[in-house]
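Q: Hi! First time doing this. I have a protein sequence and I read that you can turn it into a structure. Is that right? Here it is:
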Amino acid sequence: MSTADRSVPTQYHYDSTTQKAEASGSAYAGGDGDLISTGSISLNDGQSLIDSGGDARITFTNAGATIIKDESGFAGITLNTNLTTTFAKSITLDTGTVKVSDGGAVTQGNSSGRATAVTLNKLTGKITGDDASLNAVTIAKHTVTNSTVEEDDVVIVSKVSGDADTSVYVDAVGAGSFDVAVRNNHASDADTTALVYNFVVIKGSNT
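A: Yes, that's right. Below is the predicted 3D structure, encoded as structure tokens:
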């Protein structure tokens, strides 16, 4: 777009002095070209970006969220003000991965005991357990205090290292914490290794 004002839809005006695109109602892309600005497009809360068919595709709500819609007006993606994103349906990936970056690590503590609670307020992380002797066919449980966890969430754990005969699983999930069980499955030998496991919190709902 040049520095001179362009002829644009009546709802849209480009100010060549401020290089800012202002919209008193809704802005849309139409005609035989793209709408391009070196400045910014300003919309008030509650207004929308409209496509060439007249459908509101992106709406800025009075509460501050941004809603992306399909041609039928169905809200598919909502960008919330608390830095979360809400998807109306499932997410499909043809290729690639989904990575949770909110991670951390914590150690149960040498000689603290396998039942010692730990705290890690992250959606994913690595926990290194104590190496206190765990008798054969015996279960030791510990609590992971985690402020990101709610009672409807699903917590998944996976073993990283430790005795080959020892397994780990989630025993309970509640608001603010989850319990992990470590079981020595060997029929006669004690486990004296420090079990290391990863976990991830999947946000859930019962409605």
